[in-house]
Structures are given as structure tokens and as C-alpha cells.
Request: fold
Amino acid sequence: MKDLLIIGTSLDPDSRSQILARVALEVCKTQNINAEVLDLRDYDLPIAGAANSFDSSVVQELTTRVSSYRRIIFTVAIYNYDVSAAAKNFLELVGDSWLEGAVVGFICTAGGKNSYMSVMGFANSLMLDFRAWVAPRFVYVVKTEDLHGAEIKTRIEGLVQAVSSGTG
Reply:
């Protein structure tokens, strides 16, 4: 079993949440946590519900790759008061029994501070549909914050510690 998987869900080439996935990876290295980033931009995932989408070789590859992880951090962009469609599509296609009992955390990027609770629909699905444990601490970063600043790094350190220890 591997230590921690960071899933970068944004498909934007200039993604802020993907940058924060790399910051989280660096934090893991400083805490001696074996971690890796799964960047969804590297995969041509089908749209869930399309013909044969669940039988896709890409879906099978990703399911195999993620199934050994029990500690997961999703980095997600918030759009229109919800996580990105790419994040939801990934969960629909790849979410399965491997998530049961897993500890999950979130690093969110958004344009403003008013959509702070937008991740809760996604979190509820992880808890209720997949029986994952969701860390009550998550990192929420707005566009005016420095992605490489000390404050963001400190917040990510707390999240990484909570998820990797399973204490939330």
C-alpha cells in the first residue's frame, strides 16, 4: 500500500490547482511521506455515461493505479459553486470500493472567498456513496493569494499531516 496520492483534477494548462498539487508533493517530501501526483491532464478520460465509458482502457488503467492508496488529496478548481466537471467525471468513472475507508482531503482554488463550502457536494458523495473518511480540514485558496507563499504552504502542511496520519 502506498502512502499518499495527490489527484490534480484541473485540465487547464495554467491550472492553479495543479500548481498546488506540486506544492503538496513538496510538502510530502519534507515530511518524509511517500507521495505522487496523478495529473488528469495526462489522461484522455471519456465522459462518464458515454457508450463504453466505464470499460475504457484509460479508466481501467487509472483504477489499477489508484486502488492501492488509502490516503488521497484532491486538488480541485471551484467553478459555479462546485468542483470542476473533470473532478466529478473522474470520481464517477474511477470511484469504487477502493475508496472505502480511505482518508480524503481537499485543496481548492477559487476566484473568491464566497464559495468556501462548494466542495461539500463532492465530499458528501465520497462519504455517503463510497464510504471514505473526509478530513474536516481543507485548504481553500483564492486568486489573490500567493500559491508559493508561506501561509499556503503552512495550510497544506496541516492538511498533509491530517490526511497522512488519518486523524483528519
